[in-house]
Design brief:
342 residues; 43% helix; 2 domains
Length: 342
Amino acid sequence: MLSIRKISTFMFAGALALSLAACSSNETASTDKKEESTGYPTKAITVVAPSGAGGGWDLTARSFTKILSGTKIVEQPLTVENKPGGGGAVFMAEYATQQAANNDMLFVNSPPIVINNLKKEGNSPYGYKNTTPLAQLTKDFGAIVVKADSPYKDLKSVLEEVKKDPSKLTFAGGSAPGSMDHLISILPAYKYGVDPTKVKYVSYDGGGEAVTALLGGNADVIGTDASSVKEFLKAGKIRVLAITSEERVGGDFKEVPTAKEQGVDAQFTIWRGIFGPEKMSKEAKAYWETSIEKLVNSPEWKKEVETQGWELEYKDSADFKKFLDGQESQVQQLLEALGMQK
């Protein structure tokens, strides 16, 4: 028979063994947990503007990276890369097929990511469903613009000219036919009873190039996002005939009437957002959701949005995805009305 002392010794040894086993198990679990985390981000982040320099995507990407870096919300280097072509469609083809799991490349986009996927001409097989929508940042509006010395003083004077001869005036924009700038350009004419397919439209790679064409006399009218022409308006180089908002916007555009004010019910809102790759890791997505929420709540970002003439309109990843689903239905209806749906 075992003595009480021996029994106690065995019990102590057993308890010690269980304790050591538990510690070993905890250490293994801890090690496994550490191995699951990559400490994202570990390298420089590229934010792509799928257009040339000077347009709305470019300005948004540069503001986004500037404030994230300046506030130290993101400590890794952030760079902006311009990849123009097809109103964003060229970049989307590369991104969806070659960068689908690249957590270190984000991009800026707006309605074209929906439009390009739905339109008949120049249709892109890739859209927002081939990405991870991270957040909506701002909203902007379309602008109908002419040179400062243009004989056209208001929207109706342009529309009357187009109604007489749809091919007389050359409209231009920074995106391909059937894309956002084209829709902005022809929407007032369509609402005014003009066959939009008869309106002459020339596309350029980015809003900056479209403005250059206007100032150089290669276009009579451009349709673009209001914020991208603000500096030209302040410099007295252009005249904005109409804004596609429901009500007048403030700041530098406070004197510009809406299309609706001029009897043309042409409204078009331009949202801008940030997207990641379709196969973005959960860790990277969580990192950007947190970082972007900090960004939009920072005084630096609010000041930047005001300076650029945008309106702050934040939607987190889940709400942004729902919004895009609804936007897809709206764009489909508009393209069908214009005979441009696929």
